[in-house]
Design a protein that fits this description.
Blueprint lengths: L12 E4 L5 E5 L4 H10 L6 E4 L6 H12 L3 E5 L2 E5 L10 H6 L5 H10 L1 E5 L12 H9 L3 E5 L2 E5 L6 E4 L5 H10 L7 E5 L5 H12 L3 E3 L6 E4 L8 E2 L5 H14 L2 E5 L7 H9 L3 E5 L2 E5 L9 E3 L11 H8 L5 E5 L10 H6 L3 E5 L2 E5 L8 E3 L3 H13 L3 E5 L2 H4 L5 H7 L3 E4 L1
Parallel strand pairs: 2-14, 3-13, 9-10, 17-18, 21-22
Antiparallel strand pairs: 1-22, 1-23, 3-5, 4-5, 6-8, 7-8, 10-12, 11-12, 14-16, 15-16, 18-20, 19-20
Helix pairs in contact: 1-2, 1-4, 1-7, 4-6, 5-6, 8-12, 10-12
Bound molecules: ligand EPZ.
């Protein structure tokens, strides 16, 4: 991995568009499952092993934070070995918190382990302000004393108690933080209402219970946690990344090929599969394999809006919009979760897409084809959308600032090349 001065990577992807993609992809494990799971290892003073670590840069950054807190972190091939028996710090350095927003997930775990925590505001990111008011309100409802000053959040959980917490919005991160803050310590029962139902929360529940925790109800709106005195080490294999699976299915739909993704339970992608079928793709499922056969027609799916799970995932919004740019007819996409999640659209317009964005709604008129261009990734999923556009554009597309993409996809160019794309990282 090569870095220019200032730490930003100068690597880019060069794509010669127009190749049909065919083949099978074994889906890597879920970034948004492993990140909270890594945070929850702080609750456990023994060694935990996570199998099939996909080594995305977001995961490396989270490991840096754990190591900075004193944990032993070893990457042993595909296994991530985390030992928090040596963890002593409860203060996350601001410069580390800034690098990865999900450091905020460590807050609940630090409170559970040490009864106190000092973290800095993770700050906004490429797709929006990313407030943490729901995290803090929930913790205060459980008796955590939180003082905010100079950008730092000082938390004291010495008087934490159980009880019922109601989330005004089913926030994924807030749900995960409240689970981790309630998992160990003095005997108490905590019930979270209007909890997020994302599959990654169920994975976190399974990991915590594998360590000896008592969490139940994840995947529903009501999650109950009974605290335990201490957790023990465990070995765990996370679920597949449904967003990566969906991304490759859309790549198959756009290039007109036949793509199978293996390892991701089809029910996790029901909302996307529905739109792919509406776009005249043929989708079959067999166990944990989803097989997509695109047709030449590329009918547009009409309307889609992003919603909390099981609604259409916001992390696939950029990818499905990009597919719409080459579908015959008009599509409307509404982004309900993040206020700045269309930054990739001007780059698509550079490639000849016909998209108009008003506030959180995008209006797309399909064009016959896109043209290759030099474009810039501005965030993880928007960056991947530009790669998808390059796969079908006429001529060469250069996607710059691909460090955004490496945050959540492991060697994307290798996987796409194996499927028949003409793509290289330089
Ligand atoms: C998680 O972010 C994911 N990240 C995001 O994936 C994903 O897009 C998001 O959930 C929604 O599914 C990880 O799991 C690491 P939220 P999170 O709290 O927890 C508002 C990717 O590309 N909100 O459910 O931050 C917030 O502004 C990333 O992999 C508050 O107002 O999502 C947003 O509008 C991007 N106050 C909405 O809720 C709060 O305290 C959803 O946020 C918290 C959130």
């Amino acid at each position: 991995m090569s870095y220019a001065k200032g730490g930003k990577q100068i690597e880019k992807l060069i794509i010669n568009g127009g190749k049909q993609l065919n083949g099978e992809v074994v889906v890597d494990k879920a970034k948004n499952s492993i990140l909270p799971i890594l945070a929850s290892t702080l609750l456990c003073p023994e060694r935990c092993i996570i199998h099939n670590n996909p080594d995305y840069t977001d995961i490396r950054n989270m490991c840096h934070i754990l190591a900075d807190l004193g944990a032993g972190v070893i990457v042993d091939g595909d296994n991530l070995i985390i030992d928090n028996s040596t963890t002593t710090k409860y203060f996350i350095a601001p410069d580390l918190a800034k690098v990865i927003r999900s450091s905020i997930f460590a807050l609940g775990a630090l409170l559970g382990r040490f009864g106190k925590a000092r973290v800095s505001y993770p700050g906004g990111c490429d797709i929006g302000l990313r407030p943490i008011d729901l995290h803090l309100k929930g913790l205060r409802d459980l008796g955590v004393d939180i003082q905010e000053s100079h950008g730092l959040i000082n938390c004291d959980a010495s008087r934490i108690h159980g009880g019922e917490v109601y989330l005004d919005y089913p926030s994924v991160g807030a749900t995960e933080n409240l689970i981790m803050a309630s998992t160990v310590g003095k005997k108490r029962k905590t019930i979270i209402h209007n909890a997020a139902k994302e599959p990654e929360i169920e994975d976190l529940q399974n990991f915590i219970n594998a360590m000896g925790g008592k969490v139940k109800g994840a995947g529903t709106s009501t999650i109950t946690i009974e605290s335990v005195d201490q957790l023990h080490g465990t070995i765990f294999t996370p679920i597949a990344d449904r967003i990566i699976a969906g991304t490759y299915l859309i790549a198959g739909a756009m290039t007109g090929g036949e793509i199978s993704v293996v390892g991701c339970e089809p029910y996790l992608l029901q909302a996307l599969i529905d739109k792919l079928i509406k776009s005249s793709c043929k989708v079959d499922t067999k166990g944990d394999k989803i097989i997509l056969r695109a047709s030449g027609k590329r009918k547009c799916f009409g309307f889609v809006e992003t919603l909390p799970y099981p609604g259409f995932p916001t992390d696939l919004q950029a990818q499905i919009l990009t597919m719409a740019t080459i579908c015959r007819g008009n599509s409307v996409i509404r982004e309900n979760l993040f206020e700045a999640r269309y930054k990739y659209v001007p780059e698509l317009i550079k490639m000849g897409a016909n998209v108009v964005v008003r506030d959180r709604t995008a209006f797309v008129s399909g064009v016959r084809e896109l043209q290759g261009a030099s474009v810039y990734a501005s965030d993880l999923r928007g960056g991947v959308a530009l790669v998808l556009a390059g796969l079908v554009a006429r001529g060469y597309t250069t996607v710059n600032d691909i460090w955004h993409i490496d945050r959540g996809y492991r060697h994307i160019e290798q996987t796409l090349s194996e499927l028949g794309a003409d793509i290289q990282r330089i």
